Amino acid sequence: MQNSSNSSKLRGFSLLITIVIFLLISFVSVKMLSYSSMQIKTTEKQALSIQAQLLAKSATEFAILRISGFDKSSGRCLENINLNANPFDINITIWYFFKQPLTNCTQTIATDIKPQYDGEAIIDVVVSTKLSTEPIIYHRRTLQKP
């Protein structure tokens, strides 16, 4: 009779140890899965941020190209450019330094400047996306002589 009671206690203890080990393995597995999904989100955000930076550089070059080809004979100037490079939205705002401001150009910063700075432009490029859980917004400001 005593053997069956010891055997029963041993089986009960083995069952308890098995449950504890199972819970420990389950906890570690859940933590690893959580860490893995966090790494995927971080990698996705980094990739989108790098794309936004490269798009901002390209958009600046595009703005310079558009400014140099813009017809200013009517007294107007190129002030805004809006682009869509799915999933990114690109907004370009241009401010000018003119010694003699254009009549229909509202985005002139200063008119009391040295002649060598005449016609320079501050180009603000904002690239944004709402593709990831946290929106990505990248701003680039450059001073250019188109």
Please tell me about this protein's structure.
The chain has 146 residues and is α+β, with helices and mostly antiparallel strands. Strands 1, 2, 3, 4 and 5 form a 5-stranded mixed β-sheet that branches. The chain has one domain. It has one helix spanning 2-68; strands spanning 80-85, 88-97, 108-110, 121-129, 136-144. The chain is rod-shaped.
What is the structure about, briefly put?
The chain is of the alpha+beta class.
- Share of β-strand residues: 25-35%
| Number of helices, counting only DSSP H or I runs of 4 residues or more | 1
Number of strands: 5
Question: How many whole angstroms does the radius of gyration measure?
Answer: 31 Å
Using the alpha-carbon principal axes, give the shape. rod-shaped
Largest sheet: 5 strands, mixed
Question: In total, how many domains does the architecture comprise?
Answer: 1
Average pLDDT figure: 84
Note the main attributes of this structure:
alpha+beta, 146 residues, 5 strands, 1 helix
How are the SSEs ordered, and which strands pair?
Elements: H1 2-68, E1 80-85, E2 88-97, E3 108-110, E4 121-129, E5 136-144
Parallel strand pairs: 2-3
Antiparallel strand pairs: 1-2, 2-4, 4-5
